[in-house]
Give the backbone structure.
Amino acid sequence: MARRALLLLICLLLLAPLAGVGAAAPGAPGAVPAPRVAEPEPEVTPAPAGPTGPAETAPPATEAAAATPPPAVGSPPAATPIPRRPPLLVLPSGAEVAVIPIEGMIYDFTTDSLRRRMERARAGGATVFVLSLDTPGGVVTSAIDIAKLLKSTPEPTIAWINDQAYSAGSLIATSCDYLVVAPSSSFGDSAPVSMVGELAPTERAKALSPLLNEYRDNARANGHDYAALQAMCVLGVELYYVEDPATGRRHVVNQADHAVLVGGLSPAEADEKIAAMADLAGTGSAVGRPARELADAASAGAWRAVEQLPSGRKLPGGRLHDGSTLYTLSQTEAIDTGIAEAEARTEADLQALLNAASVSTVGQTWSEALAMFLTNPFVRMGLIAIFGIGLFVEMLAPGFGLAGGVALLALAALIGAPLLVGLSEIWHIGLMVIGVVMIVIELLATPTFGLMGIVGVGAVLAGLVLSTVPSSGGGPVPLPAPGTGGRLASATIATLLAFVVTGFASLGLMKVYGRVPGLSRLVLGDAPAIDARSAPPGPDADGAADRGPAVGETGTVRGGGLRPSGSIAIGDRWIDAVSAGGFIEEGTAVTVVEVAGNRVVVEAAA
């Protein structure tokens, strides 16, 4: 009897670690890919099944303790990620979900708009925030601000990569509590870049340090494998998918961890090997260099490579990524490796996945949307053309009219919209003002188009282009932020096209206006017929008619007026002249105020 009782007790002890495990079978109908846990957690009560399948629970505490060996003496301590929050499918059912789209370039306005929309959603009763991401990236500092905002938010946050989230978008996605992907979506490729060429080692280390620090914090807070996030930012980080046979835990690790866990090297040997490879590559700075995150002496050779992902992709030797490029993931690989929890195609899928009471989209306000629309490079192309044509028509017609009003409205949109969304810097506006002043001086000082006019046009062009591109850096002249080359190129092309359109439109207007009733006075047409009484005489015998005018002489405007150039008559002489100010109508008395070679400047007589 005692022997049977003893055998029964031994059986119970052996079966105890298996209690409470109830994961959905991979590939089972309706099953959602189970969320990965970065570190073994204490045993928990199994979560109730969600709408698309039961949730996976963490390994028991006894098994976790046995699977976590102590660090070797003298070796760097292995990383200890903070256990991630409860799995996605155990969020409280009946949640009020607010979907906040983040699209296009990320910069300071994105941060401010997100904060305002979160406050509006919270006031409306939202209990879960979903960020729908479709972005090529943007300014790193703005992305870090958004990441800190999300990690300090009391409500659960979910990143829904709905097409793409590269660069700064990847940082935002991994800062959320949970990550969901849409079909055919991708993310990654998050290295800092410069608009002025390759970064020097010191500058690259300076740019990488805060970025990697934020990614490491994301990994610790949300249970991601840091190696995968590091490989998005740094070349040379190889990735392997490995498994602990004793616990079934799977992780994405770098080559340093792989050399110990699977290769069986000691931590010291692995560290020496990585350092030697870095010296051979000439990387210099240790910032971003692969280092052991998980392995220690006790785990040497105890893990094995995962040769095939759940989706069927083969991984020879467990290698996910060879490090020759920056790491990017498709939605399939993200779910296979546990970086993403689930897949959702539509908001209805999200609602079913979260068992939410409602899902609503919180878009930008009309003023935010209008400002964003007006800063689109090709919308600005139209505004520049409208401003240039309106200004040209207004210059042809004395006084202020409809064309001038339209030009002023276009100018207000060109300057005001970038200021409202935080794109334009003060020096951009100063550059445009200086350019306009130089053009005006050139037009008033000489009838030819000289160096000052060309420089002025260049200054206006540069100001218009730069005012639509996010800036970064301190000092009085912040330059375009890294990663904004595409927007800078499109803004340049659009602005140049606008100048070309304005030029051709102005030439066309000069011809058309002459045939429009009531507007023929705006532009000089063919020379009017001159009868014998007003025709200029030829030179007399001693050439007196060819004598140039002197400063102070007076005459009368002839030949249709000065607009601003034309002809005046002084006595019986006709002389080419230019107005010192505005247009002067035919028949007006004028006084010569300047003579420089063949150039005669006059103004209306007092």
